[in-house]
Write a structure and sequence with these properties.
The protein is mainly α. The chain has three helices and no strands.
Amino acid sequence: MADRLDEERLEILRTWGAGLSASGRDELRAAGKAIVMLIEEIDRLQADVWMAREVASTRKAVGESEPKWGATLESEPATETPPEPIPMDAADALTVSLSERIARGRTQSDPTS
């Protein structure tokens, strides 16, 4: 099984994606854009996981229990599957992503450092 994508590998992929996106060849430019899009999706998914963990830890701190699927409330029927997650607002996802990057500090590959 392949190693997980750590931040260093993601930065390498970002660099490749940006470089390929600037290529004069259509197929390389398309591949570069695809890489960049996938990295952005990884960032959004990481933000979703981070937010879910924050919600869970807040619930735990407040003493709320996690919902039990299949349990019924007086006015609601039992469900066999969890409800669809509420999508994160794009601005919230961007804020979380940027906050994480700021917290990590600038990388050596950052041209502004």
